[in-house]
Write a structure and sequence with these properties.
The protein is of the alpha+beta class. About 45% of the residues lie in helices and about 20% in strands. It has six helices and five strands, in the order ααααββββαβα. Strands 4-3-5 form a three-stranded mixed β-sheet, with no helix packed on it. Strands 1-2 form a two-stranded antiparallel sheet. It starts with a helix and ends with a helix.
Length: about 140
């Protein structure tokens, strides 16, 4: 939380609790999931406080928003914000992809009159679980 002091922001119990929850949840989460997590740990905060805190943490580069097809999800920002997601268009599952080849290609890309801070690449498709369900359904329909 010294990061808040350095950036001349107030240190409040709510901000401590919300930031602790964000870094404890692991992975992507929605505002609703964050609220449920805090409620489950007997620390209720209003939706306005959650949204204002998320906005502040984004400005301070402590959290990253991902604007996905089914809505906005967030995740804690650890070292940098660079990462690749595969997103199932059927069930909405989001999985991080580790691809040194893609990451190197993005790093080597020269951008005109633009300085890149971070990137997030989304690859849309159908996960293996949903694909198996679709295949089973098609098989049953043809019988």
């Amino acid at each position: 939380m010294s990061y808040l002091e350095t950036n001349k922001r107030r240190k409040t119990p709510e901000r401590f609790a919300i930031l602790d929850a964000i870094y404890s949840m692991r992975g992507h989460f929605t505002i609703e999931q964050l609220s449920d997590y805090l409620d489950g740990h007997h620390f209720h905060v209003s939706r306005a406080t959650l949204y204002n805190s998320i906005k502040l943490f984004y400005e301070l580069r402590l959290v990253i928003p991902h604007h996905l097809q089914e809505g906005t999800m967030y995740e804690a920002c650890y070292v940098n914000g660079d990462h690749i997601h595969q997103i199932c268009t059927v069930c909405g599952k989001v999985t991080e992809v580790k691809s040194p080849t893609l990451m190197a290609a993005i790093e080597e890309t020269k951008l005109k009159r633009f300085r890149k801070n971070a990137y997030s690449l989304n690859i849309y498709g159908i996960c293996s679980t949903c694909q198996a369900k679709i295949t089973r359904m098609k098989g049953k329909a043809h019988k």
